[in-house]
Amino acid sequence: MRGSLTPVVNAHAWAPEVGEFSLGWNRPFVFLYLNFSSGPRLQITSLDERFPKMMQCTGPGRALFDKYCALRESPQIQDLERHTNQMIVQACINGARPEDYHPSLPLTTEAMIADAEACISSGAGELHIHPRDPNRNESLAHVDELVRGIRTACPGTLVGVSTGAWIVDDIALTRQHIRAWSGLPDYASVNLSEADAPEIFSILEAKGVGIEAGIATVQDAKRFVSLPQRDRVFRVLFEIEEQDIEEAEATLHGIEAVLDEAGVQRPILLHGFDSTVWHFVRKARIRRWSTRVGLEDGNYLEDQSIAASNAALVAEAVAIFRGQKVT
User: Fold this and answer.
1) Are 35 and 20 a contacting pair, CB within 8 Å?
2) Mean pLDDT on 53-70
């Protein structure tokens, strides 16, 4: 499928009685969600305006594509497409944090689904989750159950997962698990610092799963711009790990310089960790980038009090993005 214009259909649910479906394409990458049971609603990600002219569909995606092209002329969809690249706050609800990190850290499938619902209700636009096995350990083998649960609880919400090399700590087994996914997430994060990142990019692209390219260093950025998928990724994550603000800003500047010089223009999500979380939330708002918050990245609110939950962290970030909370 790589490099092809053949559609990869990622239909999470098809319910003719309510007209709900989703679809994914591998190039240019598009997600479309429709739900007419409660009025017209659409969510499209990374829409290439040339898509209807470029795509020559065959196979099982034809009917969905035809319906998409027809619906695209409606005023509701045209209005929503104009806001496709709007900034969002992503909720990163658990990450690799240990069980004792926070009382509300969601580590079971049921807890993750409930937490996801709460975060969406608090204004999160997307979800980033690290699935766990029954022993509460990170797992690439338990993605399907979690994603299907999220689809039911939060229909129409984009959900992503991690592919971190440390989760399995075995390159061949990591590849095997990802290839076996059937309950596909909308995107998966891939760290450019990891040796097998290029192959994970290719596996995800072949499955029709979007790629969040995780860049934490200037070296990561240089590696990213050398890859053939650089202009097809779902988005780029600027993941700034330095805890000193001046050092963190210098890293961010260096990463930007590499992407600018290479002419890479993809959606950007900027986030920090622990002491830099809120600095970069505000930075993202100024730069008109997306951001993320959640217990994966830190458990403090901006006033340095411990947050009660992921939903509380999301609510604070959303208030900042909406201009409702000034420093």
Assistant:
1) yes
2) 49
